Each structure stands twice: as C-alpha cells, then as structure tokens.
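Hi everyone, sorry if this is the wrong subforum. Our group has a chain we'd like a structural model of before ordering constructs, and none of us has done structure prediction before. Sequence below.
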Amino acid sequence: MGHMPEYNPTIGLEIHAELKTKTKMFCDSLNDPEEQHPNVNVCPVCLGHPGTLPVANKTAIEHVIKVGLALNGTINKKTKFDRKNYFYPDLPKAYQISQYDKPLVSGGTLKNIRITRVHLEEDTANLAHADGASLVDYNRSGVPLMELVTEPDFTSADQVVDFARELQLIVRYLGVSDANMEKGQMRIEANVSLNMGTKVELKNINSFRAVHDAVEYELARQKEAIEKGETITQQTRGWDEVKRKTFAQRSKEEAHDYRYFPEPDLPPFETEIFSPETIRESLPELPAQKRVRFKEEYGLDEHKAEILIGDPDAANFFEEAVSELKEQLPQASVSTLYSYLTSDLRGLMNQAGISFADMKIDPEHLAHLAALIEEKKITSRQAKDMLAKMFETGADPEEIMKSENIGIVADENEIETVVVAVIAENYAAVADYKKGKTASLQFLIGKAMSKLKGKARPETLKDLFERNLR
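Answer:
Right subforum, don't worry. Here is the predicted structure as tokens:
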C-alpha cells in the first residue's frame, strides 16, 4: 500500500429533551422533574392501563414548533402520532407513542449542521436496579419528550459539544426545556463511524465532557481496529466514566422492527391550528442574535459576551442595569458594571447557592453602585463591602452610604489637615521617605487612610503627601 489511509469521522446526533409543561404528554398527571417520591404523578393513562385514551398536550406541540422555527426548519402542514412497538419494563403499554413518517418539523440547520427532523414523543418510566431486583418509577412515564435528529455532518468531538451546548441554550431561551443533562432532561446519543463505515451508537451519556471524551475515544478505538484489520460490529456502547472508555452494551445485528403504525387513538392533525406564523412572531431573541448585539451595543469582546449569553437571567439583569446606568451617567463605561456582575456578585450568589430569581439586589441597585464607583464617590474596597450588604438586605447603595456614613471626603482641606497631622506624628517615616525609601510613603498613606476611615482616594492622599513633604 505505502500511504496511510485517510480517516474521515462521520458523526450524527440524536438529542432528546424533556419539555417544560404543567402536565404530561397524553394525560393530566403532573410533569414535575423535581418530584422525589416514586409513582406519585401517575394515572391509568401513563401507567398504561387497558382501555385508557390519550389526549395530546397542546403546549408540548407548540414547544416543538418553536424549536423548529428557531432552527429554520419546515413545520409540516400535516402531522400525526405513531405507535412504536417494543417490549421493555420501563414501557408500560409495550409501545411508545412517537412520530414516524410525518414529524412536526423537517429540516433546519444549526452551526452549519443539517437537521433531519424534530418530533414529539413520550418519555419512558425510570428503572432503578437494586439487590438483584429492578424497580420502576412511573413519574417520568409519559413526560413530553422532543427528539432532534441530525444528518451525519459532524467530523469531531469538539463540534459535537459545540452544537449540543448551543441547542441547550436555544431551548432554554425559548423556555421549552431546562435541558439539564445531569438531571437527564437532555440526553445525547451519538452515531459514530469512520469513512461512512459501520456505525456505533453511543448511549446514556450525561454530561458534555463525557460526550466529548466518549466520541474521541470511540474514533480512536475504531481507527485502531481498522488498522489491525478487525471489523467493526454494529452495536450500542456506553461510556465508563471511571475507566474513561466506551464499552459494548448490545449488538444490533438485525435492525429493530418497531412495527410503526399510526396511533389509532389520536387523529392526524394540521399544524395550522397552532398558527406557526404567530408563534414565529413571538420568538424571543436567540443566542446568536444576542451575541452580535452585545458586541455591537456594549462593546463586549467575544469571551465577555459569551459569559452573559450562557445565562439568560444574567444577560437580562446586565441589560436592565446598563440602561439604568446610562440614564444616570451617559458617559459611564459598562466595564465596571460588567465586572461587578460577573465576578463579585456571581461569587456572592455561588456562596449562598441562589439564582437571579431569588436575589435581593435588583439591576437598578447594581447600576447605582457602578455609578458611585465611576464618579469616584467610593473606593473599590468600599464598593465590595457595600455589595455584600446590598446582597444581604436588598438596600440601595445610596441608602447604605447615608446610614453608614460611607463615602469619599471630597473636601481637600479636610484631607490636608489629616495629612499634616500624620506628617507631624510620624517623624521617623518622614525622615526615611526623604532619604528615598518609597515604602515609607505607603506607610504614611495607610495611617491617613485609617484616620479618614477609608474615605479618601489613595491617589489624592499620595498627591497631598508628596506636596507636603517637599
């Protein structure tokens, strides 16, 4: 042969996301992912009792239409539900209501990856294995589940994660799913092959990092197998977090015959009844549009913009605070506000374990704090202390300044009086300074600061000491 063969990875994704609705997909049991007690949110429909009839959840259908529009897909005019038949303990009816040949959404693109379809189905129950027994919790059975299938357009693990993260952001911006991978609200399956060869399906991976590492490992494993002249078997594989490798779960020798047929209990319907055009007009600004706007409007660089875009609540808080700040101080820069929001305030929030929804500080207060710093009315040390008080009490910084008598002494005469007193009281340090010991100046500034209770700017003090020590 002589030359090394080329290895071209071909990867396609199937992504499931549990939708945020009040009730389940085909019954009125609650859809509550936080419910800790097993088998509480159940009824004869989602337990699969014979003779029960499903009724489709309108909100779930609207959610999928939203996603389809956000991804520039086609909302199919006619759509229907189908039965996908298979037997497994987590499937009480022994079939799953899904969509087969007429999904809600066809086509679309995201990050230059073609999307094949987006459809709606019901989730399965949860299986827990303990002491040689399997326990079934039906709280999740029948929860609305969106499935998105891509074309095999990915060529690397990085690209896969990039796409999945963006999709997670989009469904969060649309408010259709919390898409928390750790909680199983978003699940990614990757079909991986080299040179369009036999494909291996990676399943049950519950973090972006694991998805990335599993895909990388699988590409390397297949390459090695091909180089050794082995054949790759079509199978599903899981990811072992401890050994950091994929492992075989089951072989897919024959294609599964799910015997799909139209769900007889749910008539086909026209999507026009959900007026997709009205839904399109109500779509919020999506992450890609927001990135462009944040760079142009606020002069944020890519990295700074991304930190805000990744958290819709942080982005909204930032925007409200900036518009308040600009009203007070049109010439103010947003960078002070940005850094207090993303570092100091974020630190306090993480420590207390709370989100923007539960926080006492409102955007207007943060804007006032930034304005005080910008106008040099308080020092950065004072700002940090005030922020902590604002966080505890929800008070406005102006109130805190008054009640605690914080602020900067603007009157230079008052400061100068203190400077002169400090020079008189610290003869040795003054002598050292005159010999050229610059550290002595810091010592003197420190003394004056404590007399002024931190209410003078170090720059002002330095200036006055230099003038008085000539």
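For your construct planning: Residues 208-227 form the longest helix (20 residues). Residues 320 and 462 are 37 Å apart (CA to CA).
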